[in-house]
Amino acid sequence: MHYISATMVARSSLLAHLGIEVREKREAVGLTRERLADQSGLSTRFLAQLEVGQGNISVARLAEVAGALGTTAGELLADAEARLPAAERGPLVALLGVRGAGKTTVGHKLARRLSVPFFELDALIERVAGLDLGQIFELHGEAYYRRLERETLARFVREQTQAVVATGGSIVTARDTYRLLRRHFVTVWLRARPDDHWSRVVAQGDARPMAQNPHAFAELKALLAARETLYAHAHHVIDTSRLDVDGVVDQLAREIGAGSRAVARSAP
Q1: What CATH fold (topology level) applies to the domain 6-82?
Q2: Any bridge partners for residue 92, and if so which?
Q3: What is the pLDDT of residue 195?
Q4: To which CATH superfamily is domain 92-263 assigned?
């Protein structure tokens, strides 16, 4: 009788997801399998096996494939690991919304209710970079921030099984990162009226946006309108203009179980 260990199953699953990553990235950069084989030094046959999850590639060879695809072996593996099923995980909850949505306030209370840790994704990114957000954008630009955002999120998924995370307001505009988020988290859009967003920011003691930019409120309304369809892809939408913080947390706590099951069915 032959026995298949859990380790063997996990390895097979990882190789399958790695193959998907390689194929999708190859197609995204417009390379044929034959062209990628030439550039990476692999045979077309082995590359075909890799893309269907049957090629147990060495780290050195994976680095050559990754280089031809314009990425790294670490990023390929991180993305592959991030594809592993979320159904086996505990509650990973991601809160979405622009500034003033209440992500931090709700996040702390919801984490306590669920007895899980609370994190702010931007704070994790700052820790990795050794810089605050302003310095990251000033010194390295948005593309660098987006790469750190995705890498930090992928690492988080590998290391944490239960948590509530407040995300940056613009994460929904980063397609691959948002897809990764929706695949592994119960995503929640904390929706509010523009007036509520604004009053909450001011209540936090920050009146600078209006003082420095007389068009700030109009820009906030335009930003919300532009991102509304993206935020609406979240698993749950909670109208925080109608509920206080405790009401939001109560509603979310009731829905987390169904939301966790929904993650396994969502996000291609």
Answers
A1: 434 Repressor (Amino-terminal Domain) (1.10.260)
A2: 163
A3: 67
A4: P-loop containing nucleotide triphosphate hydrolases (3.40.50.300)
